[in-house]
Amino acid sequence: MAASPSALPGATAPLRAAIPALEISYFTDPLCCWSWGFEPQLRRLRYAFAGRIALRLRMGGMIGDWNGFSDPLNDIHRPAQMGPLWIQAGTITGMAAEPTVWVHDAPASSWPSCLAVKAAGLQLPAAADLYLRRVREAVMIQGRNVARHDVLIDIAQSLAQERPDLIDAELFERDFAGREARTALEEDVREARFRGVRRFPCLGLSRSGAEPVWLVGWRPWEALVAAVRDCAPNLGAERKPANPDAYALYWAGVLEPEVAVAFGRSQQAISAGSVHTPSSGTSGEPVQGSADLHRQASNEKS
Predict the structure, then answer these.
(1) What's 245's domain CATH number?
(2) In this predicted model, what pLDDT tens digit does every residue of 235-281 receive, in sequence order?
(3) SS3 sequence, the chain?
(4) How many domains does the chain have?
(5) Which residues constitute the domain of residue 155?
């Protein structure tokens, strides 16, 4: 089920409507285990309605620092308490996460990784999309401390070697240290606070002539698609991949729980700790998989 990014240029790109039926503001954070667990559902949604949904990434800045962070709902006030939540989320969602990072090399903040995503996005929205995926994999699967600047730069350098069409490492480093990316992150966090977004993942569903609908927290596919169709009944039929290999090719690699959700397999059919790492060593999204992202700032809904 593995697919190499090098195979993607010959793939058929999905058809895109001139005006999407639904716009989604996706508030998330690289250190949010429930956002990681939501990847199978979100990827299926984006594949199913490619060209009919426009997605905008919004970084949440979930953890400014541990002195000011508190999650009373989950009784989390210090880094070591985050590990059990990751284990619980992995068990429920099927998307395994490496909890020991919170003991051995705990991230001090999620702001650096959020900032790095915005820096990548200054080059292309698809670069931000792919970079966010790789940051999630780095911390959730590999247990790397993505609050460290050297780790974030290393991720960008690896991406630049694999996808030079999407991201330039030197430009990323300049943007990562620059004001424009920081301003973009501050705007995202300010928007989240204005909208009352305090938990992730959070989706703001918008369509012309209707009030936005907010979906907060992880939910299974059936609940997600029902809410989306209720908001945008004109989405049309769901596009389905021919087989797991075709789905993996579209995304340049997938994890086993993502295949299970995409093909409607029972969650019990996979282990919570089971992942399928693409043989190419990558599982980021190709240009095709990013077709639902806004490509021009003038097209984005604030």
Answers:
(1) 3.40.30.10
(2) 999 999 999 999 999 998 899 999 999 999 865 444 433 334 333 33
(3) CCCCHHHHHHCCCCCCCCCCCEEEEEEECCCCHHHHHCHHHHHHHHHHCECCEEEEEEECCCCCCCCCCCECCCCECCHHHHHHHHHHHHHHHCCCCCCCHHHHCCCCCCHHHHHHHHHHHCCCHHHHHHHHHHHHHHHHCCCCCCCCHHHHHHHHHHHHHHCCCCCCHHHHHHHHHCHHHHHHHHHHHHHHHHHCCCCCCEEEEECCCCCCEEEECCCCHHHHHHHHHHHCCCCCCCCCCCCHHHHHHHHCCCCHHHHHHHCCCCHHHCCCCCCCCCCCCCCCCCCHHHCCECCCHHHCCC
(4) 1
(5) 5-299
